Amino acid sequence: MKAVMRRLTIAGVQSFWKCQQSCLRSFSQVQQLPPLKEEEIEEKFVKGNGPGGQSVNKTVNCVHLKHTPTGIVVKCHQSRLLHENRKLARQLLREKLDDFYNGEMSGRNQRKKLLLEKFQRREDKASKLRDMKEQWKNHENGSTMQC
């Protein structure tokens, strides 16, 4: 069995930590939500629907959660298993409550903002490279025509 060796450069490590610090800095701005109280949640289990045939349509594995103070409703039927759907529904409810209470400072919106910034940096870099290639082509064409 061969051992795989990887070389880490100082620049690579520094850029990794720089990225991690910027992500942590932006996510540290997220306001904390109050914990979910089971008394505030109405939970219903209904029969599922969609692809999967008779085994999905007969079993009660779809979860409906309603947060009574805000009126936010979540429906989850991503898995065939009831306990997995309960966990997923609570995660979705937490995300929606985060959006409701924190708005622009919610975790989802901050992740979206980070991805947009990353995409914009890549687009700017690609645009700059295209411009440099175009200038180089123009420079080569201009120098050969002058001879």
Distance between the termini: 61 Å
- Going by CATH, the architecture of the domain at 38-105 would be 2-Layer Sandwich
CATH C-level label of the domain at 38-105: Alpha Beta
**Share of residues in helices:** 55-70%
Secondary-structure element string:
HEHEEHH
Which regions have little confidence, pLDDT < 50, spanning 5+ residues?
A: 4-8
Structure annotation, total helices:
4
User: How much of the sequence is in beta strands?
Assistant: 5-15%
Entry summary:
This protein has 147 residues and is of the alpha+beta class. It has four helices and three strands.
Overview of this protein structure:
This protein is of the alpha+beta class and 147 residues long. The chain has 4 helices and 3 strands. A hairpin with a 4-residue loop joins strand 2 and strand 3. The longest helix has 40 residues.
What is the topological layout?
Blueprint: H1 10-27, E1 41-47, H2 54-58, E2 60-67, E3 72-76, H3 82-102, H4 107-146
Antiparallel strand pairs: 1-2, 2-3
List keywords for this structure.
single chain; about 150 residues; alpha+beta; Double Stranded RNA Binding Domain; 3-stranded antiparallel sheet; 4 helices
